[in-house]
Design brief:
This protein is an all-alpha fold. The protein is 69% helix and 0% strand. Helix 1 runs parallel beside helix 10 and helix 2 packs across helix 6. The longest helix has 29 residues. The protein is globular. The protein starts with 13 loop residues before the first helix and ends in a 7-residue tail after the last helix. The N terminus is likely disordered.
Length: 329
């Protein structure tokens, strides 16, 4: 095994749980706001080329996964051996793909997406997790180069025949998973810098800034226009860089300044369960067909519904934390 900066048995960072909770909470809000017709465009996904704050939600969650993925695999390998570790994570990602398929089918059948949810974020994360697994025992610099090379290859394919099928599926479909895999591999490399005891964590922030600037530069060219729907290389780089900088702010506030962020941490301890649960709570809002109830709801009702959605899920997260139940696949 090649040792990297992310070694097992590192101390737990409050910032990781808080950032993961923040990612899930923003995903919940984004899914709610998607069906409100008068919500401004900058609070919804860009239709194609462009970048909105909502386009950063999925990268936040993938970044949270990447922060601990390498440590988790090496810890389990040390405890159970390579074969058991590999089997565990393969089953985990396949289960996530299956859960995502069920949720996508439910969206197509009863929610607001009108049949366009053939591929969901959980499937993208599951495939990205599978593709990233073999890379986790390579040196940090190898993963940086691999992520860069994968994004270049994917962008070339996107510009030469893949664009239509990628845009025909939500989250880029199965082909777009190459972009999401590039994001996760890149995140695990950045995580090595964060977890390293040999360098200041400010180097992590600097590395995230470099990734952001590289993506920004690519986005200024016609070759790699920024687009979440295309999972373009510029989008991957920009959103990964921003995710890293936002996480670093969480690190400064929680681990350095002592902010408890208990509510976000509760959410972050059971992210998958809360994400699944939010569909059931959201259905209370989405399914009734009364005029002015959801799609054309006035501002006061949108605020009430959004707050109610978060309160219900926050109480659920608190209850899980109180029971010391952490449910994962």
């Amino acid at each position: 095994m090649t040792q990297t900066a992310s070694e097992p048995h590192k101390p737990r960072f409050s910032s990781i749980d808080a950032f993961r909770g923040f990612a899930i909470m923003t995903m919940v809000l984004a899914n709610y706001l998607a069906g409100v017709e008068w919500i401004p465009a900058w609070l919804k996904h860009a239709p194609d080329v462009g970048l909105t704050v909502i386009d950063l939600v999925a990268p936040f969650f993938i970044f949270a996964i990447g922060l601990t993925y390498g440590i988790s695999t090496r810890r389990r390998q040390q405890r159970d051996g390579s074969k058991a570790m590999t089997g565990h994570f393969v089953r985990r990602w396949l289960a996530l793909i299956g859960i995502g398929a069920i949720l996508s089918a439910a969206e197509m059948a009863v929610l607001y997406n009108n049949g366009d949810a053939d591929w969901g974020v959980l499937q993208s994360i599951g495939v990205a997790g599978l593709l990233t697994l073999p890379m986790l025992f390579t040196p940090t610099w190898v993963r940086f180069l691999t992520a860069g090379g994968l994004l270049v290859v994917y962008q070339i394919l996107l510009n030469n025949g893949w664009l239509y099928p990628v845009l025909s599926s939500s989250h880029g479909g199965i082909m777009g998973c190459l972009g999401w895999a590039g994001m996760l591999i890149l995140t695990t490399a950045l995580a090595d810098i964060f977890h390293s005891t040999k360098v200041s964590r400010w180097w992590f922030a600097l590395a995230a800034l470099v990734v952001l600037l590289a993506g920004w530069g690519a986005a200024e060219t016609p070759w790699a226009l920024i687009s979440k729907n295309r999972v373009s290389s510029s989008y991957v780089l920009v959103s990964t860089g921003i995710s890293g900088l936002v996480f670093f702010v969480f690190y400064l506030l929680t681990d350095k300044a002592g902010w408890g962020a208990r509510l976000l941490s509760w959410w972050g301890q059971n992210p998958l369960l809360l994400y699944i649960a939010h569909y059931f709570v959201l259905s209370i809002v989405v399914l009734p067909s009364a005029a002015g109830w959801y799609g054309q709801a006035p501002l006061w009702l949108v605020i009430t519904q959004a707050v109610g959605l978060l309160v219900i899920l926050s109480v659920f997260a608190w209850w899980l934390q109180k029971k010391h139940w952490i449910i994962s696949i």
